[in-house]
Amino acid sequence: MKRRDVIRLASAAPVAGAIAGGLVPLQSVLGATVPKSLLKRDLIKELGLRTFINAAGTYTTMTASLMQDEVMEAINASSKEFIMLNEVQDKVGERIAKMVHSEAAMVTAGAFSALTLGMAGILTGTDPEKVKRLPHRLEEAGIKSEVILQKGHYDGYEHALANTGITLIPVETVEDVDRAVSERTASMHFLNCNALEGKIMHEEWVRLAKKHNLPATIDIAADVPPVENLWKYNDMGFSFVALSGGKAIRGPQSAGVLMGTRDIVEAARLNNSPNGVTIGRGMKVNKEEMLGMYAALDHYINQDHDKEWKMWEDRVAVIDEAVSHIDGVAVTVTVPPIANHSPKMNISWKKDKIGLTRKSLGEKLREGDPSIEVISWGKEDNSIDLTVFMLKPGQENIVAKRLQQELSRASS
Ligand SMILES: *Cc1c(COP(=O)(O)O)cnc(C)c1O
């Protein structure tokens, strides 16, 4: 572009909004050098996408959570500059590690990726030959090949560990652990949200791992709030902790954090982009998400958590008030003890009083305007579940009104 064109373009920028508003076709005035970003486009409208009020929760398929403003500011600002990617990971990792009481940390492409990379780090250390070898024929290359996991801790996400080529060894009791440990054992993994489904709790798991000179690892993907969980398991002695960035923390949905010992995080990074063509090459995270993740954690840790909890309770009260007086309707509020620890409402109704099913009410809410998603899948019965922590301020009133309408309309 000639210097004159740049000046012309810069002076044109302030009026671009008015032009794009429909007065004059922008391209014909300024020529082909106009960046598309000057044209205000609404892609959601253009593509005919359905947006909805999320009264379900942090489900990946629903795009989970809305990023905090601070996150988008970090993303936008860093998108305008080049920075060496490893330098971003170094600095962001250092800051995050301090926040969560770990020796080291790195931003990953989600908790799943943190699990795979952390596991890979344990297996390979800093040996480049081992890094190249994953996920095949581990034993031939002198790589440990088994991970011990309690039977009650299988929920599917252990696939993240198995991606490195390891085999999972199920155990139930302390004696099982002692028997299962061999020269092939790489680590002992714990799924925090299933803690109550196992016979061995956190401290004992860590103690057992120490006894056998093995790293204990833990998946706490969806397990804030409470905020203290961000450092609790590092303080307890787990060698790595995997966290989701895009759930209650409201960082980038495609980001997460691996926190752990210096050795494991350093080795995990060797298995990840941009440090070679490795098992983690497809788990690329760019500077925007790294800085966005850092901004999200910083904001999350420093926010007023009591105030947030009170806001959730107020939202629950609004919805409860709108529907609980309807004949045949009952509302119960529970708080899941570990994962997605926030108020969850169950709204149920008597079959003979209200002609709706779980699925049909879910569909009516979805098809309304605005569209609302609740938890209406799973076993078909006369109730729906919902959470309020992903609502935008004020949306509880819309959810309350729509529920009241549909339940009243269907009552005999
Ligand atoms: C959500 C979740 C994951 C995956 O987290 P991502 O950040 O989506 O990769 C892993 N483990 C558990 C227990 C989860 O709830």
UniProtKB/TrEMBL annotation:
InterPro entries: PyrdxlP-dep_Trfase, PyrdxlP-dep_Trfase_major
Keyword hit for Cell cycle: no
SUPFAM superfamilies attached to this UniProt entry: PLP-dependent transferases (SSF53383)
One Gene Ontology molecular-function label: L-seryl-tRNA(Sec) selenium transferase activity
Sections of the chain in a coiled coil: none
Top-level lineage group: Bacteria
Cofactor requirement: pyridoxal 5'-phosphate
Key words, A-Z: Pyridoxal phosphate
Descriptive protein name: Selenocysteine synthase
Organism: Cerina litoralis
Lineage start: Bacteria, Pseudomonadati, Bacteroidota, Flavobacteriia, Flavobacteriales
